[in-house]
Amino acid sequence: MSDGDVIDWEEAMDQCGDDEEFLRELLSDLREEIDAQLVKIEDALKTVNDQSFLHIMRASHVIKGASSNLMCGQLRETATNLEQGAAAANQIETSAHEAEILKENVKKMFEKLKTAVDNYHKFLDSVGI
């Protein structure tokens, strides 16, 4: 994993009018927002019900949007995949067995998102944010 996979710093700086202090503040805020959304996703996966995938869609959508604005490609990609997986699972009337398979697929996507989040946290630590 390269830093460019985590964030395109040059593009992010452009988004912030080349104001590094502002970018650092936004990246810190993004960390807090992502961590809050991860808790929501984890809660939704603990006891899956008819609203769980909708909650996962919403939380991953928040991560996708915020990370897109700050050029955090790995977060954007994994959040997009999770959002799409949860959306597909949310639209399907399934048997208990099928629901379990969908839940496992969404969990796998969530694990990939958590890896991206870990990489993001490591990057922030490496640049003193």
From TrEMBL:
<dbReference type="InterPro" id="IPR036641">
    <property type="entry name" value="HPT_dom_sf"/>
</dbReference>
<dbReference type="InterPro" id="IPR008207">
    <property type="entry name" value="Sig_transdc_His_kin_Hpt_dom"/>
</dbReference>
<feature type="domain" description="HPt">
    <location>
        <begin position="19"/>
        <end position="127"/>
    </location>
</feature>
<dbReference type="GO" id="GO:0000160">
    <property type="term" value="P:phosphorelay signal transduction system"/>
</dbReference>
<keyword id="KW-0597">Phosphoprotein</keyword>
<dbReference type="Pfam" id="PF01627">
    <property type="entry name" value="Hpt"/>
</dbReference>
<feature type="modified residue" description="Phosphohistidine">
    <location>
        <position position="61"/>
    </location>
</feature>
<protein>
    <recommendedName>
        <fullName>HPt domain-containing protein</fullName>
    </recommendedName>
</protein>
